[in-house]
User: Fold this.
Amino acid sequence: AQTVTQSQPEMSVQEAETVTLSCTYDTSESDYYLFWYKQPPSRQMILVIRQEAYKQQNATENRFSVNFQKAAKSFSLKISDSQLGDAAMYFCAYRSPNNNDMRFGAGTRLTVKP
Amino acid sequence: GAGVSQSPRYKVTKRGQDVALRCDPISGHVSLYWYRQALGQGPEFLTYFNYEAQQDKSGLPNDRFSAERPEGSISTLTIQRTEQRDSAMYRCASSLGGIRTDTQYFGPGTRLTVL
Assistant:
């Protein structure tokens, strides 16, 4: 079974600085999908970015980008020019192409300091 | 609607009572998923539907939990004879369907408290 590990329970960043959140996963599959979701204090789950494993190019969405290292089974999220509104729990998730359930990590709580 | 909606947003019940949690997916979304999220943890898969067919219920913890989606749109997650350990956030998500390209969009969740 696939597992997702987020080794940083909490992270802190100064406003306007850059922060990287780590995620590793365990799988024997060669094709899969990876996601980062944001959960603000409202406890909504908001999709931040997704990456298809068959694509070598790292996904980017405005200030959010990923560093996808397939061989190392690593999928980190970089947030550039951090804003106060980025403060939230961030969850990394894995989905196999052969089924529909997603496996989530335990989350990283990001604090943004003004 | 514009997004996935869930009701009620908060539910407090006494141990032993049955509860029904409702999910209204994004219009046109074929697939619907239920997750449970304990405080401080990531969501945990419970079950999912394609149209009205329940494709996978392997994540349901025991037979007190059931789900249905009779017309392929709105879904109900029912917990019978609730126990305190059932207290959690229950999240619904929907997607267009078509496994390879699918992205799941989550609703706001129902916070269930069992006293």
